[in-house]
Amino acid sequence: MNNKIKELRKKAIALPALPGVYIMHDKSKKIIYIGKAKALKNRVSQYFGSQNNHAEKVRRMVENVDYFEYIICDSEFEALILECSLIKQHTPKYNILLKDDKGYSYIRVSGDKWRKITYELQKKDDGATYIGPYKSSFYVRQSVEEANKIFMLPTCNRKFPDDFGKSRPCLNFHIKQCMAPCTGRVSFEQYDESVEQALEFLKGGSTKSVKMLTQEMERASENLEFERAAEIRDKIHAVKKMADKQKVVSVNVPDQDVIAYFTDSERGCFQLFKFEGGRLTDHENFVINNPVEQDDEMSQFITGYYSLGRDIPRNLTLDRLPSDSELIEKWLTEKSGRRVYITAPQRGEQAQLVSMCKKNAAETLAQIKGRTSREYSVLEELRELLGLSKIPEYIESYDISNLAGTENVAGMIVYENGKPLKSAYKKFKIKSFEGQDDYASMAEVIDRRFSEYEENKENGEGFGRLPDLILLDGGQGQVGAVLPILEKHNIDVPIFGMVKDSSHRTRAVTGSGGEIAINSYRSVFTFLSKMQDEVHRFAIGYHHQRRKNAVFRSSLTDIDGIGEVRAKALLKHFSTIKNIRNADLQELEMCPGMTHDSAVKVFNYFHN
Asked: DSSP 3-state assignment of 400?
């Protein structure tokens, strides 16, 4: 702990244990973070305690703090309101900052005779008719796409009747998503009627549209217009089918927002789903570049988001409850003028909604880093299971292989972003002793690995890069043998052993705190099983290679005049014993290190 942090901790301990707001400044007197506290003394002193208990971003923020101020409030609720006001006013670097850049959307109906329906973000003076404005661009875009598909309206750039018969109809016609007026075989009356039906659908929704279409179908049937009745029937089926698709799950709560948060320690992403009447009507995501602490971030996101004038729902469903959820609930209730409920469901369809929301947040960050959400999710699950401070993006795994203490070797594999990074795989030959001792072998390998780190850490590549997690093939014994090595090199990297059951399958991970069962965590179980199989394959493959070479060398050294050096040279030159046996005398003489006499002896050995 440096002197500055010690000084700040001393001042923090002297604070009153009262509710209030604290304001962190850097050396230039700029405000970099604002927070609230139920007890200022307890909350602020946490920042300047042991830095090992903080995430990397929190440590970075604390390192930039030069001094802090505080304002005492009458209650924690008053502190929350003041915090919101100050964050808006000063926009500190390490607080959640949201911009009110969500514009309005419109449904546009073109002004020409053969009208087309599109969605637009701006209203223009172009002679078209605009319906709106709507707050949700997602809702408008989805609704217009649905209407055009159901009522088989064109979405291409062709103009009618100018482009009649100029080209063949596109794919949408063949998959029954466009009536293809470009063929010239669709009457204007038929086309215009479909446009009116689509507009009724957009204005009144699926229920009103089905009712209206059903009446038209019955009239057509009474007039013996069976072809037209069949077309309308197909549209009714399409509207009902689309309405069923819109209900992602059977949601009992008619009006709610679902918010989930996902972070990889470098970035965080809030995903928000807005449901009305059981239907997903809007969704937004917000990527945060300086995540600090998840509890603070969720509170700040909620207050920041709904301070922008967004509609406050009766029900707010979160992936986890922040510690001040009651305060947030009270703040939302007062702001909206009606009772608001905050929940964090653990099971049932509401929990499924939250899970879907969180997966979308993970997918957003995964796309930024070029991953898949599945890889991202399993690493997040592994982080939570092992209690890691960050997602283990760079994992090293080790295994020992020998046969009764002979040809004692180790293999190291690397997983980066959930995938094997084979260019970083390493092989080790145990050098410090002969015989079988897996604990001593593992300790030697880790010692050599981090000795290499100390020499190469400036470039940050290969052995110069610290892993986020070390996994050993073995149990508590291997972990215990390696921990002193990490302390010796002053390396702070979490390390666990992968324990197998009697069927040679990974059943648990073990660390200094004991075993953690993984059978109930399907994604983690599969991920770790594959990793343990891969490191075992790599280590045992290297062991077999060395044993094979040893056998080859021993057979060659039986030849008079062929020692260890020439045996290695022959194997390197010819690759296999079979190639040496099939070589003629001249080819043997051409091998580096061979003389005419030694070549004759090798040739005679294999041909007599």
From this structure: strand
What does the block give as tokens for 290? 């300086």
pLDDT, tens digit, for every residue of 419-454?
A: 889 889 998 888 877 767 788 888 898 999 999 888
Contact 461, 414 (CB under 8 A): no
**Pairing between β-strand 469-473 and β-strand 341-343 as defined by DSSP bridges:** unpaired
Long-range contacts of 299-304 (CB under 8 A, 24+ apart): 299/80, 299/324, 299/328, 300/87, 300/95, 300/96, 301/96, 301/98, 301/259, 301/261, 301/270, 302/259, 302/328, 302/332, 303/80, 303/83, 303/84, 303/328, 303/331, 304/84, 304/87, 304/96, 304/97, 304/98
547 pLDDT band (50/70/90 cuts)? low
- pLDDT confidence band for 40 (50 / 70 / 90): very high
Phi then psi for residue 479, to 5 deg, are -65, -45
Angle at 173 between CA 171 and CA 175, to 5 degrees: 70
Distance CA 331, CA 446 (A): 53
Class at the top of the CATH hierarchy for domain 255-368: alpha beta
Coil vs helix vs strand at 95: coil
Q: Cis link prior to 161 (omega < 30° from 0)?
A: yes
Query: What is the rounded CA–CA span in Å between residue 458 and residue 449?
Result: 15
Q: Where are the domains of the chain?
A: 3-90, 105-246, 255-368, 384-547, 557-607
Return the residue matching tokens 């953690």.
Answer: 516
Instruction: Count, in order, helices (H) and strands (E) of the chain.
Output: 19, 19
Comparing 93 with 502, the larger pLDDT belongs to: 93
Between residues 492 and 122, the one the model is more confident about: 492
Partners of residue 20 on adjacent β-strands: 37, 72
CATH architecture under which domain 557-607 falls: Orthogonal Bundle (1.10)
Selected from 3.30.565.10, 3.40.605.10, 3.40.1440.10, 1.10.10.10, the CATH number assigned to the domain covering 3-90 reads: 3.40.1440.10
In this model, does residue 580 exceed pLDDT 80?
yes
Whether 144 and 106 have beta carbons less than 8 Å apart is answered as no
- The secondary structure of the chain in percent helix, strand, coil, rounded to multiples of 5, reads 50, 20, 35
